[in-house]
Amino acid sequence: MCGIVGYVGGQQALPVLLDGLERLEYRGYDSCGVAIVGDLGIGIQKSTGRVTDLRKTIGDAANTTGIGHTRWATHGTPTVANAHPHTDASVSVAVAHNGIIENHDSIRDWLGREGIKFASETDTEVLAHLIGRLYRGNLEDAVRSALHEVEGTYGLVVVCAAEPGVVVAAKKGSPLLIGVGDGEHIIASDASAVLEHTKRVVYLDDGEVARVTASGFTTTTLDASPVTKEVQEIGWTLDQIELGGHEHFMSKEIFEQPASLRDSMRGRIDLGRSEVRLGGVRDFVSRFGRTRRVILAGCGTAWHAALVGEYLFEGMAKVPTEVEYASEFRYRNPVVDSRTTVIAVSQSGETADTLAAVQEAKRLGALSLGAVNVVGSTIARETDAGVYLHVGPEIGVASTKAFTGQVAVLAMLAAHLGRRKRRFPKKECAGFLADLAKIPSKVEEALRCDGQAKSISERLSGRDNWLYLGRGYNYPVALEGALKLKEISYIHAEGLPAAEMKHGPIALISDGMPVVFIATRGAQYEKIIGNIEEVRARGGHVIAVATSGDGRIDKLADDVIYVPDAPEPLQPLLTVIPLQLIAYHAAVARGCNVDKPRNLAKSVTVE
Ligand code: AGP
Q1: How far is the centre of ligand 1, averaged over its atoms, from the C-alpha of 511 (Å)?
Q2: Phi and psi for 331 in degrees, rounded to 5?
């Protein structure tokens, strides 16, 4: 939820920290701060709001060691006092933290009885005081001892006045990596903050502590046993995390979908042999093939992709499939066994509830697979095996290309399992894969509706309640369309299976209320036409997403956006495009911050 960064090297630390924080701002952005270690001790500068605001208030600092933080509040409102880094009373130690210290209350009470005065309402401040009290000339030891006292999750960077040139980092539950440069190291929550300095990174694992200097780093466990780490190469380019001429990352990522879908399928669809090749599950392919039940788990948009996955797995592999909100699955004591495969769907690979669902599934003996975008992320490393989405970095908080990437990967996994189980005839699979391979160019065609989506949004973004309705494979798309509108334009919207309307929500319909129908060709086309009639009869403003060439629909709907035809199982990859664009333009029309919507963050690393 927050973004943290640390720097030690030959350059001035401040500009590196501020640039890194700006790259991490999509993780959380209600306040920020830096701590620079100099000859006179630690200098702290904090601000509410964006890094740009902090830049305005901060002077130059020549020193070469420091830490920084951009916040998504969990404990204490967004104020300067609650912004990180936090220090101990004598400002001899400074801490920036991403995560939650669950037992902070009891530690705060104990420290309070010891005479410690607190400057903030945060959970993190207790860590700064603990480390300060435990410091006996070695920061790494003090951090380890303090971490033995705390429960919860953390990605942590710490500096102290007595050891300029040293940053100590620690990880448990929140992501943290070290960028390995020439004579410098950058510690960060994710790769976007280190890419302009180096492509060589080390991913910290849970329970690890690193002592980082300009010339090198050492890693140990919390009990001080040395740990050897492998340096890996990041596959992304700096361009990929820049706007590339778009006004917002969200619009850039929407228009990247033809390319990102091609990358998701590259080397995985073998049309000649009518089969899918997924190297990432190779070592578990026979166990996966013996699976009797599939559970798809995720949160938010990933959960919507998982819902499409349910239809795909039951359609092609004929295996009982369920979809779980990860946050519910992890506490529900689910009935899971060794013949169950739990597939975690996640863009960031860091969502705390989805990670915990994987750990619960493994505890119960299930095979755990991941459909994840961020390479080297915690869920990717926690699952037994998996398939990367390969859609490139997704910076906009509202997930777009990751949704279509997740649906494409789940489609390939389902076809793969269907073939393994001999329940998906070769000829049918050949047809399906051929259609899947055509999707990227059909998405290019669907993106041509941008102007129309813009005009619909500009006309209707003043309405505060919208409904999204779909059937079958397109029911999850209705949910996704509603979520996109809610999270970036702050318009209240509800997605539903179209038939559910008559059981209550139809009472919401009043004059001019926007109702979006996904009404593409399919087995339930006539049913959806009936639902459109019901809404028209009650004065709703019907916006229909329909199949190109459908001459009937425009007589029924107020606005129609056409998408290319495709078999029903693949329609979600096309029908979601106009809904992403409608939400995007509605947010722009309402003057919202599209890439950094209020109260949200890109990856939810706390419960
Ligand atoms: C979607 O636009 C949101 N950013 C959010 O619902 C997101 O899908 C959810 O938090 C899951 O994130 P993940 O895919 O990184 O696990």
Answers
A1: 33
A2: -110, 0
